[in-house]
Amino acid sequence: LGVGHQDRGSLHDALRDWTTTIEAKPDYVEAWIALGFANYALGDFNGALKAWERAVDLDRQNLQDIDPSGQIQYSSDLTLNAYAGLVMVNQKLSELNPIDRQQKQLQQQARTYFEQVVSIKPQLLVPETLALEWLWTPDMLQHWQTTIKRVTVSR
Q1: Buried b / exposed e across 92-113, counting CB within 10 Å, b at 16+?
Q2: Are 38 and 11 a contacting pair, CB within 8 Å?
Q3: Which of 55, 94, 147, 154 is deepest in the core (most CB within 10 A)?
Q4: Cα dist. 82→60, 117, 149, 153 in Å?
Q5: Does the structure show a pLDDT above 90 at 146?
Q6: Which ranges in 25-137 belong to alpha helices (H)?
Q7: What is the pTM of this model?
């Protein structure tokens, strides 16, 4: 995903490029975030989940202070895209999971991330704001809008 990687064939190229980048520099947070978007766009939701969780973990390692209230802490604004991705992927996995208990856990996780992200940066609710960032293709913006509707309805 990103510059020049928007059709399906290019998504596979992007996935390969981001994987290669991560192999060379495993602590590159932005590459993990981009890998999550590429995986999600290709329908590999477990791959997206792992990539975004890794990005968040790496970002947390860059923090100097820990917020005892439990609010999301991040060292880079770009990491909020990983949290938004975690909202999308948890909601999507809940829709694909037929086991009621697991489905509810995934929905709750999506809601928790959603509430935290929106409390930090409410602009993430505005597609025009996200469209300015290279990670958010029109398809991903549509997925985000759909996720917002589903997460806020399932409260």
Answers
A1: bbbeeeeeeeeeeebbebbbbb
A2: yes
A3: 55
A4: 12, 10, 19, 22
A5: yes
A6: 29-41, 45-61, 79-96, 100-120, 127-130
A7: 0.86
